[in-house]
Design goal:
2% of the residues lie in helices and 42% in strands. It has 2 helices and 29 strands. The chain has helices spanning 24-27, 218-222; strands spanning 31-38, 46-51, 57-62, 66-71, 76-82, 89-93, 99-103, 111-115, 120-125, 132-137, 143-148, 152-157, 165-168, 172-177, 183-188, 193-198, 208-211, 228-233, 239-244, 250-254, 260-264, 288-290, 296-300, 307-311, 322-323, 327-329, 337-340, 347-350, 353-359. The strands form 7 sheets. Strands 18-19-20-21-25 form a 5-stranded mixed beta sheet, with no helix packed on it. A hairpin with a 7-residue loop joins β7 (99-103) and β8. The longest helix has 5 residues, at 218-222. The protein is globular and about 50 Å long. The relative contact order is 0.17.
C-alpha cells in the first residue's frame, strides 16, 4: 500500500503547521491527481463531497445509498457506511469528525444525524415534506440550515429534533452561511434573487436582496427549469459564488453589493452535468468551489475530463464580464463534484470515482 500523501501546508490565513507555508497562488496551476478511489460498481456516482474541519477526512455520498469515508491526509479509504433504507445525499460533517448529517433520498424527506464511529443514528430531523436540496452547517455552532422543494428553509440545532426556525419562500433551493456566521444567503431560482438575512433576526425580512436577473441570459430567465447548483461565500466574505449549469458560466458576485464581478465561463460547452435542485436527473452539489484563500475557483471543465481553475483577480472582459479559466488541470475523469480542503493545499473531485489533487512541483501550467 502506498504511503501517506505529502500534502502541502495551508495558505496564509489558514491554520499553520511547523512547515513553510506555500501560498495557493504559487501552486494552484500545478495541482495533479495523486489518488483515485474506485467505487463499488462502475455505474455508481458520487453526489456530494465534504471535508471535516481538520482537513483530515473526506466524506462522499453516493447514489448507491452508501457513504464513503476517506483519510485525506494518508490517502486511503477508511470505511463504507450504508444507508440502504433511506438513501443518502448532501452528507456534511458536523464540527465533530465522527458525526455527520445527510439528507434522505427515499422513504421520507428527513435529515439524519449519524455517528461514523459505530454507524448508529444519533437523531432524526423531521419536518420537510419534499426532498432536501441544500444542507449548510454553521461555521461557529452546532446549528445548520436545510432547504427543500417544499419551499421552506429550516434552522436546526443538533441537540433538538425540532426546527429552531422556519422561513417560507418561493423555491429557496440553496443556502450558505458567511464565514462570520452572522449572515445567511438564500438563493431563489424562480424569482432570480439571492436574499441575505441577519442570522440573529432571521424571522425579520432580508436586509438585502440581490436581483441577478440582469446578469442572466433571456433563455435562463424564461426557462422553467432552474440551473443554479451551488451557493458559497469566499472565506474572506467578500465574494459570493452562484454556480450554474449555464453555458454563460458561474456568477461571481460582490457579497456586499450583489454586483456582478464576473461570468466564470467553462473551457468547454457544458454537457451532461448533474441536475440542479428541482430538476429530474442525477444528483449533485455543483461542480465548482472556492479555494480556501478565496481567490481561486476550481471546477469541472464542462466536458468528460479535466478540471479548470479561475483566478478571480484575473482580467475580466469589460463588455461581457467574462472571466476565462487561467489553466486546466489534466484528468481522465469528469469533475462532476468539487470540494477544497479547508486546512491544506489539496482538493477533491468526483464523478464515478473520488480523486485527490495536490501540487506537483515538477509540472507547469496547462492551458485550459
Amino acid at each position: 500500500m502506498a504511503g501517506p500523501i505529502a500534502i502541502p501546508p495551508p495558505p496564509p490565513g489558514g491554520p499553520q503547521s511547523g512547515q513553510t507555508t506555500q501560498k495557493t497562488s504559487d501552486v494552484i496551476g500545478t495541482f495533479r491527481t495523486t489518488k483515485l478511489f474506485k467505487l463499488g460498481k462502475p455505474d455508481t456516482a458520487v453526489t456530494s463531497l465534504d471535508f471535516d474541519d481538520s482537513g483530515e477526512f473526506l466524506l462522499a455520498a453516493c447514489d448507491d445509498d452508501s457513504l464513503q469515508l476517506y483519510n485525506a491526509k494518508e490517502g486511503r479509504h477508511v470505511k463504507q457506511l450504508l444507508s440502504q433504507k433511506y438513501g443518502a445525499h448532501l452528507a456534511r460533517f458536523t464540527h465533530h469528525a465522527t458525526s455527520i448529517i445527510y439528507a434522505s433520498t427515499k422513504v421520507d424527506d428527513g435529515i439524519r444525524y449519524l455517528s461514523t464511529h459505530d454507524n448508529a443514528f444519533l437523531r432524526y430531523f423531521k419536518g420537510h415534506t419534499a426532498p432536501v436540496t441544500s444542507l449548510a452547517v454553521c461555521p461557529a455552532s452546532d446549528t445548520f440550515l436545510s432547504c427543500s422543494l417544499d419551499n421552506t428553509i429550516r434552522l436546526w440545532d443538533l441537540k433538538s429534533p425540532s426546527p429552531q426556525g422556519r422561513l417560507n419562500l418561493s423555491t429557496p433551493h440553496l443556502a450558505a452561511y458567511d464565514p462570520s456566521a452572522t449572515v445567511i444567503a438564500i438563493a431563489s431560482s424562480s424569482t432570480h434573487t439571492i436574499l441575505l438575512y441577519d442570522l440573529r433576526n432571521y424571522d425579520k425580512p432580508p436586509f438585502a436582496t440581490f436581483d441577478v436577473r440582469r446578469y442572466l441570459s433571456q433563455h435562463a430567465i424564461n426557462s422553467l427549469k432552474p440551473d443554479w447548483t451551488r451557493l458559497e461565500f469566499s472565506n474572506d466574505g467578500k465574494s459570493l459564488l452562484l454556480a450554474t449549469n449555464s453555458s454563460a458560466g458561474h456568477l461571481l458576485l460582490d457579497a456586499f453589493e450583489g454586483s456582478l464581478r464576473a461570468h466564470c465561463v467553462r473551457s468547454q460547452q457544458p454537457l451532461n452535468l448533474r441536475a440542479p435542485p428541482g430538476v429530474p436527473g442525477q444528483l449533485g452539489q455543483g461542480d465548482v468551489c472556492f479555494s480556501s484563500d478565496g481567490r481561486y475557483l476550481i471546477g469541472g471543465s464542462g466536458g468528460d475530463r479535466d478540471a479548470i481553475v479561475w483566478d478571480t483577480q484575473g482580467q475580466v472582459e469589460i463588455e461581457t464580464k467574462q472571466l476565462k479559466p487561467m489553466c486546466g488541470l489534466p484528468c481522465k475523469s469528469r469533475a462532476a463534484v468539487a470540494e477544497w480542503n479547508p486546512r491544506y493545499n489539496m482538493c477533491a473531485t468526483a464523478d464515478k470515482e473520488v480523486i485527490f489533487w495536490v501540487p506537483d512541483e515538477h509540472v507547469g501550467l496547462k492551458p485550459p
